[in-house]
Design goal:
It is built from 13 helices and 14 strands. By secondary structure, it is of the alpha/beta class.
């Protein structure tokens, strides 16, 4: 088969969770004998827009072909994604590539009619919802202070929420645009051969807020993107408890809460942070905060596939995310390396941490502090958590996800209407 993957960004420009999953799926399908082309958006722009041809090396001499679309400067992100120049290029790419199937992983930098454009050319298409964007123009259902997210598919609170970034626009106009956004996404998803989500928690969120029927959503866990390189061993002797976090180090992941939660524990703990911090000012903030609170901090920075996994050097991995997380790749990676986790209650993180994890209330320092100080005082409880972790072989893999997608894609191709001549 020839497959076309649409995604809002892709390595090397950005390596978030969605981008890494799409890369993992592309490798899996390619290794299964299929041809995969990734059509990626970008945060960069170019006058009039531009198509950039790229390849992403995968370490085995078989790169992934990437066609990256840079929007025109006037094609700004908004409620309705009005990207005419980018849309024309997408139409041309579909006509040129003529894939057997289109798999949409995100719309935000590409436009919200990717399924519709594909189906209009007789190309069946499916969708994976990697985050709550289809229910929230802010992506992660994190409203500004003073606004509470609706618990259902109503949009009254959303009008005030997005209105804070659209000063001068009448609220009734914003409400109308939100209605148009919902209608456009319903059309888009209604034409998809399948709509997949990575967790039961995400299925519940989407069915509640879009709304969609829960039975119309396929739950396909992403799984581990690479094989665990061994298991972290308990360290012997009277050594500090090594607390760590890894991934994209941004404020939405609650890393500053973790630093604050370790205050007052003295030299009994040390903090390790590994991963990409896109904002140098945030790194400086974390370093100053750790220094002020006398929290020993070791900054490891970005790590690649050939580097030792940072979890191997941790006693506890902590992920106090403030977002409605839809899976939790980092949680699963820590556990697969034998490291107990402490996670916030948001989204799918408790689902991933069901064995070997402690779940705390989201957004507060004190719940984190209590959980970590308890584990510090009771190493036996920490060992109990470690013993609860499943065998590494029992964790799902990205190849398993690709196999499930292959079944859905083949069924969609088999039942698709004949392509127009």
């Amino acid at each position: 088969m020839k497959l076309l993957f649409f995604v809002h960004n892709f390595p090397p420009e950005f390596r978030g969770g969605t981008e890494q999953v799409v890369l993992g799926l592309a490798r899996s399908f390619r290794d299964g004998g299929d041809e995969v082309v990734v059509v990626s958006g970008s945060e960069r722009t170019a006058p009039g827009g531009r198509l950039v041809e790229e390849v992403v090396e995968t370490g085995d001499g078989r790169p992934i072909r990437v066609r990256r679309l840079l929007r025109a400067p006037e094609e700004r992100y908004g409620l309705l994604l009005n990207y005419p120049a980018t849309g024309e290029r997408i139409g041309a790419i579909l006509a040129e590539e003529r894939p057997d199937f289109v798999h949409v992983h995100h719309w935000s930098t590409l436009g919200m009619d990717l399924v519709q454009r594909s189906v209009a050319l007789g190309i069946p298409a499916g969708v994976t919802l990697h985050d709550p964007w289809v229910t929230c123009a802010r992506f992660f259902r994190r409203p500004p202070r003073g606004i509470r997210c609706p618990s259902d598919a109503t949009r009254k609170a959303c009008v005030s929420c997005v209105g804070m970034d659209m000063e001068g626009r009448p609220l009734e106009d914003i409400a109308a645009e939100l209605g148009e956004r919902d209608a456009a996404l319903r059309r888009e998803l209604g034409l998809a051969s399948f709509v997949a989500v990575p967790s039961a928690a995400t299925a519940a969120l989407i069915s509640r807020h879009l709304p969609m029927r829960r039975e119309d959503l396929d739950v396909i866990p992403h799984g581990l993107l690479r094989e665990p390189a061994g298991r972290a061993l308990p360290r012997e002797g009277d050594v500090p408890l090594r607390v760590g976090s890894f991934g994209n180090l941004v404020p939405d992941k609650g890393i500053d809460l973790l630093v604050e939660a370790l205050a007052g524990l003295g030299d009994q703990v040390e903090l390790q942070l590994a991963g990409h911090c896109p904002d140098p000012a945030y790194r400086q903030h974390l370093e100053r905060l750790a220094d002020k609170l006398k929290v020993p901090l070791r900054w490891i920075g970005p790590f690649g596939e050939d580097d030792p996994h940072p979890a191997l050097d941790m006693d506890i991995a902590v992920f106090p995310s403030l977002c409605q997380e839809t899976y939790g790749l980092v949680v699963e990676e820590a556990l697969a390396h034998g490291v107990p986790v402490v996670v916030s209650q948001n989204g799918a993180l408790p689902e991933r941490a069901a064995r070997g994890g402690v779940v705390v209330r989201s957004g507060g320092v004190m719940p984190l502090h209590i959980a970590l100080s308890t584990l510090l005082r009771s190493r036996a409880q920490l060992e109990t958590l470690r013993d609860e972790i499943a065998d590494p072989g029992s964790f799902p893999r990205i190849g398993t996800a690709a196999g499930r997608y292959r079944e859905l894609i083949q069924a969609a191709i088999a039942t698709a209407d004949p392509r127009p001549s």
